[in-house]
Amino acid sequence: MDEASGDRVDAKDLLTPQAAADLVNVSRPFVVRHIDAGDIPVVMVGSRQRVRKQDVLAWHERVQNKSAMARSKLLDAVDDELRG
């Protein structure tokens, strides 16, 4: 059961932090940092942290979009500087 919403969670949709990291090709400590920061919602299974696959994918998309926007701004600034 999801503590935040009270909804039942299907066990097949839950991932360990390591499985979540493998899914989006990042390190486990990176995922854990974002879990601890509250960026990825957690479902407690006993005393173990699990995350929903859909939450991991949504978080990863947000991170990717944020990185792409920052990269675009940086490239625009460099382009402006080179054009003088």
From TrEMBL:
GO terms for molecular function: DNA binding. Keywords: DNA-binding. Residues 14-61 form the Helix-turn-helix domain. Pfam families: HTH_17. This is Excisionase family DNA-binding protein.
